[in-house]
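G., the chain you wanted modeled:
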Amino acid sequence: MSEDRRARSVGIGRAHAKAIVLGEHAVVYGAPAIALPVPQLTVTASAGWSCRGPDDLGDVSFTSTGSPSRPLMTQASASLRRLIAEFTTTMAVTDGPHLDILIDGAIPHGRGLGSSAAVARAVALALADLHGVRLAEHEAFDLVQTAENVAHGRSSGVDARTVGAPAPLLFQAGEAEELKPGCDGLFIVADSGVVGRTKDAVELLRAGFQRHPGAQDRFVGRATQLTDEARHALASGRPEELGSRLTDYHELLRAAGLSTQGIDALVEAALDAGSHGAKITGGGLGGCMIALARPEQAGEVTRRLHAAGAVQTWVVPLRGPAEGG
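Predicted structure as tokens:
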């Protein structure tokens, strides 16, 4: 924490969405995962004081605009209040008058895009800005994890790290490593319009492991193999191989019962349009799909995805502007 304590009247914090490229579900069993920041989808939080009366000291209210709905903010308020309490203790700041938090977000909820982690990070950074302190990255991560653990139970940490990352990350056993893509290309994320059911998907997978001896080891082993091969393909500039590993991982998740007819239709549409590969992304049983395509294919892939039922799509360059050349 920096001691630049120049308190402001309003603090601002920002974060972005994320998508899992490979490693869903297996990462909680120790396998690696590759995660992609989605900077096109952002959350901005503002934090400020308002004097509502002596009984409001230390109280907080949340208001949302944009994509997060009022029920979502009601649900998220417990985790955000915990984050605020942890921030106050960890940063050794004092409570002021009534705290107003305004959240403006464009990340669809329940699609595996890290909406809750992005909101938490934006709020943490807004609080730091308000109090005139500077959060180290590990401090921001810990605060987001505090909120994520309240909201979802034990969290792997993938979302908490990726919603603030500038580049793709390899994540394993609690450690994150920035990946440097060796090739150009575009990831296309498509929203099926159906809220994913991560908790149900986790239980479905666990139940399958319990019914079939050795199933967990086979699943985690195959997931690890595919993610390792994808990581090497990404680094060495082999987009066709990277795409094939995406499609192979989709088959792994589909065989476990974690896909849907809608997601499968999007995967098929992306492949028919010439994508290198495509798969479900996130917890499953709804949510989003991700495809890897050449830049010149992006328009046709996007058109086919919308024709197949996608309600929204976002195009994310494999390499950002700073990584080009």
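The mean pLDDT is 90.

Shout if anything looks off.
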